[in-house]
Design goal:
alpha/beta, Rossmann fold, 2 domains, five-stranded parallel β-sheet, two-stranded antiparallel sheet, 11 helices, globular
Length: 305
């Protein structure tokens, strides 16, 4: 079948973007000249030699009844990941690379990952608004080596936008292009989706993985160009978001339920503070990381060509 996209169809952007509303609300059919093509984002596809059927992905229910149990799940999963990356059967070994900002999510990820051999963390110097977002001080406390990259470093590189807008029209993750020298052969550990998984104000607690934005998607194509794996840790156990949310509101987390009412992530605060990072160094103000190309600047002439 020689199916192509229909240039007269006006809603591709909306159709692809509907996945941020969760697995129960996304547009399942993609319009083509040969008719609709079904999109499957999460469930398994089973081929029996003659036909293809959709099969619900197995779900193992874990005990997230306490902070300690949930933290143990994250730590044990990291340990298994570390062992997998260093397995002798691999032709090419991978090394972990943490991320660090002055927010909540990436310090949480790197704090946990340092216990299983993560010794470096990537940090961008400024946030979207120009605030200091450098995680270097936190890195020193955690005992990991900070790799600080200028937020605008990508702008001086050739054809930087292309692999990012190939994944999402906003191209918001293009700033990772500036860190390219650090990424090959790595597993990049990020905190994407921590704003839903760990925030006390999350409203949608269904198992359908409601995102609300497309942050992190822009790396999908770029990682293949460079040769690294993107691992967003907050997605681990994501279908039990209701249990994790209950931990955040439990009495045992009261001491860490601090900060502005609209920006509280006690699980993150407890993990990072118990590692020795002072409260005032992270999670004080909500900062943004992405660089929406539609607002930041026009796509360069070379990339446009």
């Amino acid at each position: 079948m020689q199916a192509t996209l229909d240039p007269s169809y006006p809603r591709y952007f909306d159709d692809f973007g509907s996945i941020i509303n969760g697995l129960h609300e996304y547009r399942r059919d993609l319009a083509t000249c040969a008719g609709p093509v079904q999109l499957t984002y999460f469930d398994n596809l089973v081929w029996d030699g003659q036909s293809l059927t959709v099969q619900r992905k197995p779900s193992r229910h874990r005990d997230f009844s306490t902070f300690a149990r949930y933290r143990n799940f994250l730590e044990s999963s990291l340990q298994l990941l570390s062992e997998n990356l260093a397995a002798k059967q691999r032709r090419h070994l991978y090394r972990m690379l943490g991320t660090l900002s002055r927010g909540y999510d990436s310090p949480t990820v790197t704090t946990l990952a340092r216990q299983v051999g993560c010794v470096e963390a990537l940090s961008f110097d400024r946030s979207r608004r120009g605030d200091d977002d450098n995680g270097e001080v936190i890195a020193r406390i955690l005992g990991v080596r900070p790799l600080v990259v200028r937020r605008d470093a990508w702008q001086s590189m050739p054809l930087p936008e292309i692999p990012f807008i190939a994944s999402t029209p906003t191209g918001g993750d293009v700033l990772f292009k500036g860190a390219e020298e650090h990424l090959a052969g790595r597993v990049l550990l990020t905190g994407f989706h921590g704003d839903k998984m760990w925030d006390t104000e999350t409203k949608d607690l269904s198992e359908h993985i409601v995102r609300g934005d497309d942050s992190g998607v822009g790396i999908t194509e770029y990682r293949l160009w460079v040769g690294f794996i993107h691992c967003a840790m907050p997605f681990w156990g994501v279908r039990q978001i209701r249990d994790v949310h209950a931990i955040s509101h439990s009495p045992e987390m009261k001491a860490w339920n601090a900060g502005p009412p609209s920006y509280r992530r006690p699980i993150c605060r407890r993990i990072v503070e118990e590692a020795g990072v002072p409260r005032e160094l992270f999670g004080v103000h909500k900062r943004g990381m992405s660089v929406p190309l539609s607002r930041a600047r026009a796509v360069s002439d070379a990339s446009l060509q």
